[in-house]
Amino acid sequence: MKKITFLVKSIFALSLLMGVASMEAQVEFKLQTEMFTRFNDVNDNGQGVTTSQYYDFATNVLTDMEPEATGLTSINNNGDVSGQMYFDEPNGIMQPAVKKNGTWTPIGWFPASNPAESGFTTYGISPNSKYVTGQMSIGCCDFGTFLYDTDTGELFDVFDPNGETLTGYAVTDDGTMGGWLDQPNGGGTLRVPAFFNKDGDITLIPDGQLPTFITNSIVDINSANVMVGDFDGQPFIYDSNTATFTTFDTPEGNGGTFTSISDNGIVIGYEDVDFQVREAIIYHPDLGPQPLFLKDVLSDLGVTIGTADGKLGTAYKISDNGNYVAGWVNGPPVFAEGWMAYLDDSIILGTQDISQNTVSFYPNPVQNTLHLNSKEAIDAVSIYTVTGQMVSNVTFNETRTELNLSSLASGVYLVKVTSNGSVENLKVVKQ
């Protein structure tokens, strides 16, 4: 039996109790109509990058990248960007690069690399803009990870001491990288989720267990060093602080992955619902024990998707504050149209300070009867599912009352208590 052990204090859906109508006016979804607009990243300001353009959610405008750049991969809250530039333009040879404080700087190649024979892919930039990471080879086949220090201009090469391929996708403010390490399995590639640093200290997860699927990875890391990815076709969350590794089921039971995690613990990704067909997923403990389809959450908030196949495809990045989700529709990724959803600040309200509460309640979790006590007379109590559907609405004129929840299915419910003109919101778990 899987245990959900990753807990956060932010409540993803608490604000649905503030009024579904107001939420519908604030949550937005924008779909691009041109090819080659798949989004690679988005920051807290709704600024995103495609492979060759900048995007601003507020204006829905795409702007071409600077002429000195040849590709964009990641953007942080400073507006700094990882990408690539020409190394040898006449011969079409590229190199990784970074834009910091508005200026593009080439990163270059490992000293032992011959750029004409080697390869690279730029991936993440750290939130503080100090580090850029990606994959780079020496020659055609000896692949490791590069870590570039934007402050000192140092380029570190990180290789597996056993000679296996090592790749970093994401990097934190202290230079911790997450990605995968290849392991010999007698038949070729076996990518194992791994995190590591520039000194070559490599940790494979989960501890002591190798996957059977050939491709597995850590894809993203948040500021609390919580990592997400996929292992044997299942999305996972790994809390490196407690060494807790938790796998999850996708909504329809197919293979899937988590691709990104916000600082307040909202996780997004996708499920492979059919051959070369994906459906975006979203997870937070307060939405339930397993991921949901993002399109269903948006639909419940009154948002029309409007894609050609009715699916969202790939959810690829979520902003650090959890407000923006970006990805692309189904189809060949290089040609795909991008989309971005704004989830609004109110969706990620933090838990209330219990010392300020005027309403107390017990037990929680509850099986049948929920007891409410208030300093003021309770006028009404409404109960909502986490997707905003009201399942009960009862009026009272008492400071103490009981609610019969025996008819409700097990799950998380949001209870709105109206008392003397004020509203208090409670999160209740029904067993």
Provide an overview of this structure:
Mean pLDDT is 88; it is low at 1-25 and 346-356. A hairpin with an 8-residue loop joins strand 24 (277-283) and strand 25. This protein is mainly beta and 431 residues long. Helix content is 3%, strand content 47%. Strands 29, 30, 31, 32 and 33 form a five-stranded antiparallel sheet that branches. The chain has a four-stranded antiparallel sheet with strand order 1-28-27-26. The protein has helices at residues 20-26, 294-300; strands spanning 28-31, 41-42, 47-49, 53-56, 61-64, 69-75, 81-88, 93-100, 103-106, 120-125, 131-138, 142-149, 155-158, 166-171, 177-182, 191-196, 202-204, 217-221, 226-231, 234-239, 244-247, 256-261, 267-274, 277-283, 292-293, 314-318, 324-328, 338-342, 359-362, 369-385, 390-404, 411-419, 422-430. The longest helix has 7 residues, at 20-26. The radius of gyration is 23 Å and the shape is elongated.
Instruction: Kindly report the average pLDDT value.
Output: 88
Q: In terms of structural class, how would the helical and strand content be classed? A: mainly beta
Unreliably modeled segments = 1-25, 346-356
- Based on Cα principal axes, name the global outline: elongated
Biggest beta sheet summary: 5 strands, antiparallel
Percent helix among the residues?
under 10%
Q: Give the strand tally.
A: 33
Number of helices: 2
Radius of gyration equals 23 Å
User: What is the distance, rounded to the nearest whole angstrom, between the alpha carbons of the first and last residues?
Assistant: 17 Å
Strand content: over 45%
